[in-house]
Automatic annotation (TrEMBL):
Entry-linked PANTHER family: F-BOX ONLY PROTEIN 21, SI:DKEY-261L7.2
Domain of life of the organism encoding this protein: Bacteria
Name of this protein: Regulator of sirC expression with transglutaminase-like and TPR domain
Domain named Protein SirB1 N-terminal: residues: 39-184
InterPro entries named in the record: SirB1_N (IPR032698)
Amino acid sequence: MELPRQACLDCLRREPPAVFEAALWIAAEHDLTFQPETAQRLLADLIPSIRAAVNERSSPVEQAQQLLRQLVELGFHADEWPLKPHAALLHQVLVRRRGQPLSLALIALELAFRLDIPLSGINFPGHFLLRVPGADHLLDPTSGRRLYSPDCKMLLAHQFGPQVELNASHFRVALPYELLQRLSRNLRQLHHHDGQLLAALKDAQRVLELGPPMVSDHLARADLYGQLDCPQAQRYDIERALLLSNDPNEQLELTQRLAELGGLTRLLH
């Protein structure tokens, strides 16, 4: 039987990439008794209700919003704070009908794909969003509400404060591997906050396997290794972060951390 991590990566190599199935394999990595086929059946059970709510004569923009509103009618909502890992584990989201914006968006994207409704994921910071290509607005996967530029500014300010300015990069369509990296980062954070360090380490490692990592990804894994008392592995990730960093202040801080770990000589030579 194929291991969940390898099955997830294999899904990305298909054409088109099977993002929903890959996300199920991520869930299976944390629940060894779970079979993705069960979640696939739960999703398939939603299709008749969604199809009945979508007007075939409507524009793609209207159809996408009808799909999202029907999901809300079926009980799919944002999970309550503080969030737990089950808010990002897709099979549990399908059962509980509660989740993070990204996990709800992954369900909506797969339903839209099966019903031939054009819909894309938008890597908006702090709150994943959706968009029909060419539309003048975004869609909130937790409510189906249309979000125009002023709404997006308010959402960004709510997440990060008024000092952060909205820019074009916030509206970029998420590539398949980016969807799964973001899901894995969410799980890494949720498992970490829940005290499940080994589960968080699985997520941290998956982030690095799925696509090009950021400095913060190596630092997140380094912190986990530090808490798990694995100094050599921690040193490796700090070294990788230092090589990736373009920030002089950050480079100085990382160099100091390496010196404290006794790894500076090995890095420089």
